[in-house]
């Protein structure tokens, strides 16, 4: 389960050179080519929604709205990159994590803020460095039923820990926040290991996060931008399930 972490940390000096190789930025741009039409449509659809949200909320909280706008667009680019097995997802995820975590802390939505910091430290940075998350990214599937059990136990343990930690704060949504964060951590581990089963977790997590941010909005905080983003995430999850380019259909080739 944790072999990719061990591999990246053990080869950190070697893998770090990958970031500074010649024409690295050009390679990143090339990772945005060859996606399905539905993916490009989601990017455009999300951009329109984000602009609407930015216009509506700018006068109330201009700085927060701009940060949410940037984070919302980058986060969608990240998840669409994942579903298309594209190396751009690491950097898009890292930058969006910083933006969304900032908005989450300001809005008092500590679960989402911690979730994004977790993505940054334990997923995005490792995906940037991991050679298996660069060219010719291959999807894998569970080979044994015991793998379901291992990840289920990991999820349960994470939920217990997060519930305990959030219960010691003034978080008004301890149950939902801890559950959402445990799913995020489990999904991240599945993603780093390139398991197609991650999309069962991401789909459920998308629905829970939409509910979480909707509740945050009803309490007078938050931003419609992130509700829009997670709605697009859900559509992207469906793409990964059912598209001929998705994780359950074909392997990516060079």
Automatic annotation (TrEMBL):
Highest taxon listed in the record's lineage: Bacteria
Main location: membrane
Record flagged with keyword Glycoprotein: no
Residue ranges of the TM segments: 38-55, 61-82, 94-113, 148-166, 199-218, 224-242
Keyword terms, alphabetized: Membrane, Transmembrane, Transmembrane helix
Membrane topology listed for this record: Multi-pass membrane protein
Keyword Transmembrane in annotation: yes
Record localization: Membrane
One Pfam family it belongs to: NMN_transporter
Single GO MF descriptor: nicotinamide riboside transmembrane transporter activity
Protein name, UniProt field: Nicotinamide mononucleotide transporter
GO cellular component, one term: membrane
InterPro entries assigned to the protein according to its UniProt record, in alphabetical order: NMN_transpt_PnuC (IPR006419)
């Amino acid at each position: 389960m944790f072999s990719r972490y061990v591999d990246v940390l053990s080869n950190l000096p070697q893998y770090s050179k990958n970031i500074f190789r010649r024409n690295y930025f050009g390679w990143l741009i090339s990772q945005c080519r060859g996606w399905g039409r539905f993916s490009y449509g989601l990017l455009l659809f999300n951009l329109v929604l984000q602009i609407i949200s930015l216009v509506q909320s700018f006068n109330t909280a201009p700085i927060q709205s701009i940060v949410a706008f940037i984070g919302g667009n980058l986060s969608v680019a990240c998840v669409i990159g994942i579903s298309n097995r594209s190396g751009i997802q690491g950097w898009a995820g890292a930058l969006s994590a910083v933006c969304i975590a900032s908005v989450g802390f300001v809005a008092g939505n500590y679960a989402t803020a911690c979730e994004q910091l977790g993505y940054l430290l334990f997923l995005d940075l490792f995906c940037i460095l991991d050679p298996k998350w660069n060219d010719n990214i291959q999807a894998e599937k569970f080979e044994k039923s015991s793998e379901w059990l291992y990840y289920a136990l990991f999820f349960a343990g994470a939920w217990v820990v997060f519930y305990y930690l959030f219960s010691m704060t003034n978080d008004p949504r301890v149950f939902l926040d801890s559950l959402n964060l445990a799913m995020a951590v489990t999904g991240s581990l599945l993603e780093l290991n390139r398991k197609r089963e991650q999309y069962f977790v991401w789909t459920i997590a998308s629905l829970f996060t939409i509910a979480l941010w909707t509740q945050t909005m009803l309490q007078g905080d938050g931003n419609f931008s992130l509700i829009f983003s997670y709605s697009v995430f859900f559509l992207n999850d469906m793409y990964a399930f059912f598209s001929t380019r998705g994780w359950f259909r074909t392997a990516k080739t060079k």
